Automatic annotation (TrEMBL):
InterPro entries the record matches: GlnE, GlnE_rpt_dom, NT_sf, PII_UdlTrfase/GS_AdlTrfase
The UniProt record lists the keyword Cell membrane: no
Organism: Luteimonas notoginsengisoli
Keyword terms of this UniProt record: ATP-binding, Ligase, Magnesium, Multifunctional enzyme, Nucleotide-binding, Nucleotidyltransferase, Transferase
Annotated gene: glnE
Record's protein name: Bifunctional glutamine synthetase adenylyltransferase/adenylyl-removing enzyme
Domain Glutamate-ammonia ligase adenylyltransferase repeated positions: 36-271, 544-793
Domain PII-uridylyltransferase/Glutamine-synthetase adenylyltransferase span(s) in chain numbering: 292-430
Enzyme Commission designation: 2.7.7.89, 2.7.7.42
Superkingdom, taxonomy of origin: Bacteria
Cofactor: Mg(2+)
Length: 961
């Protein structure tokens, strides 16, 4: 490349000429080198000084432009006295290589930041390894109580931890070690003293200014208790500190923490343990208060020190971009692990993908960050100074502007001002209070006057039918210890939130009921300031809360019992599409990562509650049909059952080993099998197993039973699988802080309540062939294998298909189905002159199910396709395809099912029995069902008392539906 390939390098030729005069003329004759050196000279006196002192480095740069990394740094006992010089020369060479590649446009700003980070890590690791060897020779190796060797863990915080270190930055370090102990050398030291001395010498070796300058400035002030704290702490002491003393700014600092030297694996393990301190399990809008306080302190510092030209700390500077991204990560990262990255640019991308930042905002911030960081690097590259302030010197301004390709300093300044204005706008929008004041000031004044003052007429004006009762409830609430003991900040939030909620409740039809629901919720979240912050900061969440509580007693109860669900009100995913079938399982399976069963159940139930809450909101908002919601609830139950089965297996195997060659499965009946589960529905389950048979023989006692668990406490197969089924039922019903998973009904197993909890596959087959009632075969129509061994599921499906596919006499079948339906209706139908029982009433959901089950049992021998679907819409379609239903009748039944199911889900969402005042749509649905029943020759409308001997079976069938 010739010199003409580069544009003029500088407006100040004497600066370049003075730099070039330091090199031999023969060297400058190298093609292209003079122009490159001229451009570097404009940007960095430090780089020119380094290549003059290290000619070999210039030769490398002239040969390959620094494409290959520098040779590794070697520090050992043989060159102990040269360690400081070797470190400083290595860092200077590595930094000059970065200047070269930046100025010549060979690397983008991300590569330069990554290169600065890697260089710091190389120096840290080389220095620590050399010092460790030196300490081991004098003091031995620190060992814990069990004799395991311990190493220092060096955590890098800030930009070093984030992998985005600027050119001449200091490095923020914190020293720690895994466990207490003592070194095993001739002059032993306790772990704390050993690692403190080691850390101090490491900092000195890197930081001390010598004739060769410095390697890296080291800042240890971010350790627990700052300069007053111990230099190195054990992990246990660190955890105790963060639990008791940890402050908001430390959450930001440790958000980017990363082990950079020493025992890296132990460091990563500690950060996993520290994660709950950094990322709350709920949406943490309380983090904004901490950020506002930090912003105010920074603003005061900027004003006091006149830092308006500081591109890091000033308005619209680098720190505002960092704080904006980190605040959003802290708010949402507890719920979404994809937002916990250390890199700022990757964090901005993740926040955009999760819909917490718009694409335009992300793009503006990314562009601004790159420009600001590149300018920051150039300011520091000039003389290797840790500066973030725009230069006052005209020559420096000219050099920085020209080096970045600007015509003059005013051009650079104009672009910079525009960039900073965009950043400041985005940052201020994040911190701006998003509160929505009550429309009626009277309610706010009334609330603030409680409990002694306040005029209840404000409640009457707000729409309360019984203002005295509402007034009494609010006064009682204010007097509770939870309200009295609130901090000033939390009480201020409550004072802004309550009037909005009180006004919204007053607009409801049953204002007193809604107010009672809201106060119950508030009572449960008073100790969680972050939940009050969420409602205070986010009007959208407050609006969704009111809507959910007004329309659904079910959701109101869930929110009051598990305030964690408040996060769902603002989760960006709530308004989007709900998971497909395959997405439920991996979300639930995350609980299996927890080895403690109680903790796993808690995590699983929180996931289940959150997903069912989203399904309920989508149903209430009309974003999806009730059919889709019922199907999703069943898919969710499938995923939960699969996880609970694995938890039960894990516990049983630990206690009793395994049964070799055995298989186990769970069959779902009723609404679970038919994929039409409701909110709060129980699960009808049947447990099956298959194990190798033990051959009889004279020596059977002397041989191990192949169908026994091979553990210190072996069980034979029947008892092993009975224990497994019992454990599954127990786990599903275990009450945790998130409630219980599901209520279970196992009465549909062979022989009902008199039969074994778990059946062998062969006995189940025998029962279905020889002893099962017709109504049990009806129930089998909707049954579905939901969890367990796949091959057992295939075998069970073969039994089901064989059972349902047998030829049946039409008259006898019709008589059995008619008789059972009439008995059920006589016992269970709650319809009367004022309303209709959606489930058991004439023309209701159970009538439709009986009709379809009858058609499957009647025709499956000739039409095997009827055996495939379990859900009502699928069964209707299959019956229409086989000719069992006419097309017009099938269309009417599809519509009828949708109407009745939607009405039923609406009732359960509001904790009402499935009973409605008949309207036109319900009337049409009933008529369609009645017409189809009569067309099939069935008669369900003759009421006769159920014979005593069938009552239990009737109850079981009812419950399965």
């Amino acid at each position: 490349m010739n010199d003409d390939a580069f544009p003029p390098a500088t407006p100040d030729s004497p600066t370049v000429e003075r730099a070039l005069a330091r090199f031999a003329p023969a060297l400058l004759a190298t093609p292209g080198l003079r122009a490159k050196l001229a451009r570097v000279a404009v940007a960095s006196d430090f780089a020119i000084h380094t290549v003059v002192r290290q000619p070999d480095l210039l030769s490398r740069l002239a040969a390959d432009d620094g494409a290959d990394p520098l040779p590794p740094l070697r520090l050992d006992a043989d060159n102990r006295g040269d360690w400081p010089a070797l470190l400083r020369r290595h860092r200077a060479a590595g930094s000059t290589r970065l200047v070269w590649r930046d100025v010549l446009g060979l690397d983008d700003v991300e590569a330069i930041l990554a290169g600065s980070t890697a260089l710091a890590e190389q120096c840290l690791q080389a220095a620590l390894a050399a010092l460790e060897d030196d300490f081991a020779a004098r003091h031995g190796v620190v060992r814990d109580r069990d004799g395991n060797p311990q190493r220092l863990v060096v955590f890098g915080l800030g930009k070093l931890g984030g992998g985005e270190l600027n050119f001449s930055s200091d490095i923020d370090l914190v020293y720690a070690y895994a466990a207490d102990g003592e070194s095993d050398g001739p002059r032993p030291l306790a772990a704390e003293a050993y690692f403190a001395r080691l850390g101090q010498q490491l900092a000195k070796l890197l930081d001390e200014v010598t004739a060769d300058g410095f390697c890296h400035r080291v800042d240890l002030r971010l350790r627990p208790f700052g300069n007053a704290g111990r230099v190195a702490l054990s992990f246990a002491a660190m955890e105790q500190y963060f639990q008791r003393e940890g402050r908001d700014w430390e959450r930001y600092a440790w958000q980017k923490a990363r082990p950079v030297a020493g025992d890296l694996a132990a460091g990563e393990d500690f950060l996993v343990a520290l994660r709950p301190f950094i990322y709350r399990r709920y949406l943490d809008f309380g983090a904004l208060d901490g950020l506002r306080a930090m912003k105010a302190a920074i603003a005061a510092e900027v004003a006091r020190k006149d830092l308006a030209d500081d591109i890091k700390r000033g308005p619209g500077g680098i720190r505002e971009i960092e704080f904006l991204a980190q605040a959003l990560q802290l708010i949402h990262g507890g719920r979404d692990a994809t937002l916990r990255g250390r890199s700022l640019l990757r964090a901005l991308d993740a926040l955009c993908e999760a819909n917490h930042l718009s694409v335009d905002s992300r793009d503006r911030l990314v562009s601004a960050y790159r420009q600001l960081r590149r300018l920051e690097n150039r300011l520091q590259m000039l003389r290797d100074a840790q500066t973030h302030v725009l230069p006052d010197d005209a020559d420096d301004r000219s050099r920085v502007g020209a080096g970045l390709g600007h015509a003059d300093w005013p051009a650079l300044r104009a672009q910079l001002d525009a960039v900073r204005a965009q950043v400041a706008s985005e940052f201020d929008a994040l911190l701006a209070p998003r509160r929505r004041k009550p429309d009626a000031g009277e309610l706010a004044a009334y609330w603030l006057a409680l409990p002694e003052g306040g005029d209840a007429s404000a409640l009457a004006d707000a729409g309360y039918a019984d203002p005295a009762a509402a007034d009494a409830a609010l006064r009682d609430f204010v007097r509770t210890p939870g309200v009295r003991d609130l901090s000033d900040g939390a009480r201020a939030r409550l004072d802004r939130v309550v009037p909005v909620l009180v006004q919204a409740a007053g607009a409801a039809i049953d204002s007193q009921l809604v107010l009672r629901r809201l106060l119950a919720l508030l009572h449960n979240i008073l100790r969680r300031a972050s939940y009050l912050a969420l409602l205070d900061e986010q009007p959208a969440a407050l609006s969704r809360l009111v809507g959910a509580v007004v329309r659904s007693a079910f959701l109101a109860e869930r929110l009051a019992a598990l305030p964690l669900l408040l996060d769902e009100l603002l989760d960006a995913r709530v308004a989007g599409a709900l998971p497909e079938r395959d997405a439920f399982a991996p979300q639930c399976a995350q609980a299996l990562a927890l080895d403690d069963t109680e903790a796993a159940l808690m995590a699983l139930n929180e996931t289940r509650q959150a997903l069912s809450f989203r399904i309920a909101l989508a149903t209430l908002d009309g974003r999806q049909h009730a059919r889709d919601s019922a199907r999703q609830l069943a898919w969710l139950a499938d995923a939960v059952l699969a996880v609970v089965l694995q938890l039960a297996l894990r516990e049983l195997r630990r206690a009793h080993g395994e049964v070799p060659g055995a298989r186990f499965g769970i069959v779902g009946y009723g609404s679970l099998g038919g994929e039409e589960l409701g909110f709060g529905s129980d699960l009808d389950l049947v447990f099956l197993y298959d194990a190798p048979r033990v051959d009889a023989g004279d020596d059977v006692q002397s041989r191990p039973d192949p169908a026994q668990a091979g553990n210190a406490r072996p069980l034979d197969a029947p008892r092993w699988f009975a224990r497994l089924a019992q454990k599954i039922v127990a786990l599903l019903g275990t009450v945790t802080a998130a409630g219980r998973l599901y209520d279970i009904d196992v009465r549909l197993r062979p022989d009902g309540g008199k039969g074994l909890l778990v059946s062998t596959l062969s006995s189940y087959d025998d029962y279905q062939r020889h002893r099962a009632w017709t109504w049990e075969h009806q129930a089998l129509v909707r049954a579905r294998f939901v969890a367990g061994d796949v091959s057992l599921g295939d075998a069970w499906r073969a039994i089901r298909d064989d059972t349902l596919g047998r030829p049946r006499g039409g008259a006898a079948l019709r008589q059995d189905v008619d008789a059972m339906r009439r008995r059920m209706r006589a016992e269970l139908d709650r319809s009367d002159g004022s309303g209709f029982d959606l489930k058991q009433g004439e023309g209701g959901l159970v009538d439709l199910e009986f009709l379809l089950q009858y058609l499957v049992l009647r025709d499956a021998a000739q039409a095997p396709s009827l055996l495939l679907p379990r859900d009502t819409p699928g069964l209707i379609d299959a019956c229409a395809a086989s000719g069992a239903l006419g097309d017009d009748i099938a269309a009417g039944l599809r519509d009828a099912h949708g109407v009745l199911l939607a009405a039923g889900l609406e009732c359960t969402l509001d904790r009402r029995r499935r009973w409605v005042v008949e309207n036109e749509a319900v009337g049409a649905a009933r008529a369609a069902v009645r017409g189809a029943i009569h067309a099939a020759g069935l008669v369900f409308d003759e009421r006769r008392a159920a014979p005593r001997e069938h009552t239990s079976e009737m109850r079981s069938l009812h419950d399965a539906r």
